[in-house]
Specification:
Largest sheet: none
Keywords: Membrane, Transmembrane, Transmembrane helix
Organism: Drosophila atripex
Number of strands: 0
Radius of gyration: 18 Å
InterPro entries: Ssk
Protein name: CG6981-PA
Order of helices and strands: HHHH
Shape: elongated
Helix content: over 70%
Transmembrane segments: 21-45, 57-79, 91-111, 131-153
Strand content: under 5%
Oligomer: single chain
Number of helices: 4
Distance between the termini: 26 Å
Structural class: mainly alpha
Length: 164
């Protein structure tokens, strides 16, 4: 009979693959979401409607950094054992939850109130793509939270490397 841990391991591998795909979609929207031009996160309201460089640096760091981290982790999981989670993985999932939700929140805050220069249109494709990107960032944070909860469940059962 198949154990719950084996089914959970397969689910976690699929979850990591889904996170990688969503992360790639977010990066594409971030970079080319404004009709082939840079969309960005936004992050500040000012007179010239320029986006905050600080918010953009943090957002791009989160997107690219966690794409690399999750990609490497997915490859290691594909070739590794079903033994689940080290302490570093759990900490990175907590950090990923916080950072993705923060980036998504900044994007949603900026793009929700964005108004185009063209005839004061409140609904335009740039705004809709920005809101979609922010929503995907929050969903990505929720997936990291789910992975954190699963790691805590494995920790409570003693199925981790750092409990022995």
């Amino acid at each position: 009979m198949v154990s719950v841990e084996t089914v959970g391991s397969i689910f976690i591998k699929a979850l990591k693959l889904v996170r990688n795909i969503i992360n790639l979609v977010i990066i594409f929207l971030y970079r080319w979401g404004d009709g082939g031009e840079f969309l960005g996160i936004g992050g500040t309201w000012n007179l010239n409607e320029e986006k905050s460089a600080d918010a953009e640096i943090v957002a791009s760091g989160v997107m690219v950094g966690f794409l690399i981290y999750t990609g490497c982790h997915t490859i290691a999981f594909a070739f590794g054992t079903t033994k689940h989670k080290g302490l570093c993985d759990t900490i990175m999932n907590v950090v990923g939850t916080i950072m993705w939700i923060a980036v998504g929140g900044v994007a949603l805050h900026y793009w929700k109130g964005y108004m185009s220069d063209e005839g004061f249109l409140y609904v335009n494709s740039e705004r809709q793509v920005g809101i979609a990107m922010g929503s995907l960032c929050v969903i990505e944070g929720a997936l990291y939270l789910l992975d954190t909860v699963l790691a805590c469940i494995h920790y409570s059962k003693g199925d981790t490397d750092y409990t022995q």
